[in-house]
Amino acid sequence: xxxxxxxxxxxxxxxxxxxxxxxxxxxxxxxxxxxxxxxxxxxxxxxxxxxxxxxxxxxxxxxxxxxxxxxxxxxxxxxxxxxxxxxxxxxxxxxxxxxxxxxxxxxxxxxxxxxxxxxxxxxxxxxxxxxxxxxxxxxxxxxxxxxxxxxxxxxxxxxxxxxxxxxxxxxxxxxxxxxxxxxxxxxxxxxxxxxxxxxxxxxxxxxxxxxxxxxxxxxxxxxxxxxxxxxxxxxxxxxxxxxxxxxxxxxxxxxxxxxxxxxxxxxxxxxxxxxxxxxxxxxxxxxxxxx
Length: 291
Description:
Layout: H1 5-36, H2 40-44, H3 59-66, H4 68-100, H5 107-116, H6 124-133, H7 141-144, H8 151-162, H9 166-174, H10 179-190, H11 192-208, H12 211-216, H13 225-233, H14 250-286
């Protein structure tokens, strides 16, 4: 079908707008990347748009990786992501499967109580007191257990599991499979797209989490990477990274250390997305209509 002049103008305007929005969204990350590789002295003298590193150097990254807090925080974050996401997927899958079956007693009442928690919660002080009474204060489990199941993600998984034909469940029962076998051998493999999306949602949530650690943890040896990053960016704590730098250069290199730390904390999670991208749209659409 031949386009009219108005449609062509609208198409060009649409493309130009989307390109401009894409560049506006991408440039801050590009700026941080170039700044992290720049010479501190040249960077502080630069004004305006940064289109390439100023005096290419790895000094900021050397300082970041020489800081023991970064290495420890990286390992802590990997533990929270791997263990926490595994617990999230296991518990969410079990709960979603049970609540997606047709013959479960009081499942609507249970779903109401779960949905209720999305709008109302106990608050910070009761949560802190509960964690303290459970003996999880200042332990890794204070970060993992309270967020073991997300009500929103549970609803998405439940809706996806409901899309699995009940005839497959009936056939498996005739072959002698119990509910656990049906869940992990039939329903789970048929729901891989939504499982991949949940892996991404839960994994990114654990990777970016810092508030719970700030509230429940006092031992710096348990701090996640994002909490250390917060100290560097907000509290301006870069002194421990500048032991080998002359006093006159401490302030400039402190700025590039901030940029390098942002890149170190961001790149790993960006590398995960391409492997899950093919499942992402399908998985989100499966659970898009919540019942």
